């Protein structure tokens, strides 16, 4: 078994100078500190501020860091209004917004709401108790009465845990296909990320092969992508091995076990797009426990979103643990309204129903 590979996150752009960014203010204090500057984290901060409380958003990376890591020109499944926060309209030239539309939109919302941001500042601990919390970061301490964790799930891949996974030509994040023209590329997975990557690689002149643990391409693949992929596989332009598992990765090959036995696939590059999960180690650092269910759901009250530590709340995808399709931008943004209302002593609005079925299978299954 290979050692767990280190993860190199996609490069990010320099932070925009027009945002209100506090690099280091010793002993600064706010009513609420939000950990995570993704869409749900930003929604939490603006909903808190609108109720007269002060808020600060802290993130180890850039503003909406996960979206920066998405593939170039990635198309969201949702229409614009379902991605909006704080009532700010999202404009796009497309029926469904692209990654670049979302990056611009959330930056403009943060600017318009004058959110206080402390970016590129990793949180390393949480001390104290409700009303007297101190969020400990690599750069200092931030006082808070309440803390909201909205850290998503995109930073920690579901590793294959096979020899060679840590080789430099293996990555768990796909950006764009152009570097792989006239190259053999193995894509591991059978859901949206893998499907889109295989199609783009084909059209950029690569020779992609999909390795799929399940007997078919997932039914959850976006409806405008799945038929395209199935037809390219039928034509033989995209290779596909089903009911197949990776055994090891070498500098030039991917060794797989198929129903017909062992097989060696040539590969100059490998995309192991096997899904992601919340950073459970980080949650434990904050003192958040997890339930013993299959999803390892972080302990929280489903009606209030308060964790096992009073005054410490969860928002967004992280609430579902390994059920990463349970909460997302479209319905997770309502967590912000619920938590903010509770902290301000208002009647909390009801949460929307879950819009997608819960899935616990790894994305490459």
UniProtKB/TrEMBL annotation:
Keyword hit for Oxidoreductase: yes
Database matches in InterPro entries: Bdr (IPR023856), FAD/NAD-bd_sf (IPR036188), Metab_Enz_Cyan_OpOx_G3PDH (IPR051691)
Keyword annotations of the record: Oxidoreductase
SUPFAM superfamilies (alphabetical): FAD/NAD(P)-binding domain (SSF51905)
Domain of life, source organism: Bacteria
Pfam families: Pyr_redox_3
Classification via Gene3D superfamilies: FAD/NAD(P)-binding domain (3.50.50.60)
GO molecular function, one term: oxidoreductase activity
Protein name stated in the entry: Thioredoxin reductase (NADPH)
């Amino acid at each position: 078994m290979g050692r767990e590979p280190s993860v190199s996150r996609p490069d990010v752009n320099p932070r925009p100078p027009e945002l209100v960014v506090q690099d280091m203010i010793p002993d600064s204090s706010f009513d609420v500190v939000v950990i995570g500057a993704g869409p749900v984290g930003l929604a939490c901060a603006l909903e808190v501020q609108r109720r007269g409380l002060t808020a600060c958003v802290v993130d180890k990376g850039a503003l909406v860091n996960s979206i920066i890591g998405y593939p170039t020109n990635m198309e969201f499944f949702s229409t614009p209004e379902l991605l909006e926060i704080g009532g700010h309209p999202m404009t796009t030239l497309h029926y469904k917004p692209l990654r670049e539309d979302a990056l611009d939109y959330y930056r403009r919302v943060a600017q318009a709401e004058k959110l206080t941001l402390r970016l590129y500042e990793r949180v390393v601990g949480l001390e104290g108790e409700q009303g007297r919390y101190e969020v400990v970061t690599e750069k200092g301490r931030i006082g808070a009465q309440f803390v909201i964790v909205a850290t998503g799930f995109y930073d920690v891949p579901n590793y294959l845990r096979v020899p060679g996974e840590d080789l430099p030509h293996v990555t768990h994040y796909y950006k764009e296909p152009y570097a792989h023209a006239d190259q053999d590329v193995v894509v591991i997975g059978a859901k949206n990320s893998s499907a889109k990557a295989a199609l783009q690689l084909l059209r950029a002149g690569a020779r992609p092969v999909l390795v799929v643990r399940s007997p078919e391409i997932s039914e959850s693949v976006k409806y405008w992508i799945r038929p395209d992929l199935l037809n390219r596989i039928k034509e033989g332009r995209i290779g596909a091995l089903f009911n197949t598992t990776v055994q090891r990765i070498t500098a030039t090959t991917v060794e797989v076990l198929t129903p017909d036995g062992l097989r060696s696939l040539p590969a100059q590059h490998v995309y192991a797009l096997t899904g992601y999960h919340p950073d459970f180690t980080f949650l434990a650092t904050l003192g958040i426990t997890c339930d013993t269910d299959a999803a390892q759901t972080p302990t929280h009250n489903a009606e209030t979103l308060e964790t096992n530590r009073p005054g410490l709340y969860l928002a967004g995808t992280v609430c579902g643990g390994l059920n990463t399709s349970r909460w997302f931008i479209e319905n997770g943004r309502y967590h912000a309204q619920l938590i903010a209302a509770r902290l301000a002593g208002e009647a909390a609005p009801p949460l929307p129903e879950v819009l997608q079925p819960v899935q616990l299978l790894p994305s490459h299954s």
